[in-house]
Amino acid sequence: MAGRQAKILTEGQLSAALKATRTTRYPVRDKAMLLLSAKAGLRAAEIAGLTWEMLIDADGRLADHIALSNHIAKKGSGRSIPIHARLRAALLPLQRQAQSRGHVIKSERGEAMCPGAVVNWFRSFYAKLGLQGCSSHSGRRTFITLAARRVARAGGSIRDVQMLAGHRSLKHTQAYIDPDSAAQRRLVSLL
To answer: Measured between alpha carbons, how far is residue 148 from residues 30, 79, 142, 144, 177 in Å?
Structure first.
């Protein structure tokens, strides 16, 4: 896949992938990994480095946002990302299993997964589903593309998408956004 961007996921593909996590060896963990990518836009290294301290409030309950630390984010781009309802629902059973300590995503030996293992998990998972061109970055590209398409409805701007993505430049954010030819046709018809 060198030189090509990871494909974004359609809503149907994401639904099928979420359904497929039910049949994996670690369905609770795997569903959370998939949603951390697609509904929070986290990179593989951020998924691997995420700890419960970044997800819980002072009372030990799941917070309303991910407080992503600079030390696990690319180029120190820590940020606050609101937790999507589907991601929250996936994190709660994982939190009960982990008792809110240590890394969120763990290997079968109970240790933190390394970023390479997260990348390999996504590659293998998508390959089993027959999703060609998808990788650990597909969920992130999906998140950024959908956020860019819907930001005006939320009353925000592309700058808000940039902040959620943890990019220093809008140029980087724009490179993640997949164009939509149907939207382009609708836009031109409005002119």
So the answer is: 26, 18, 10, 6, 7
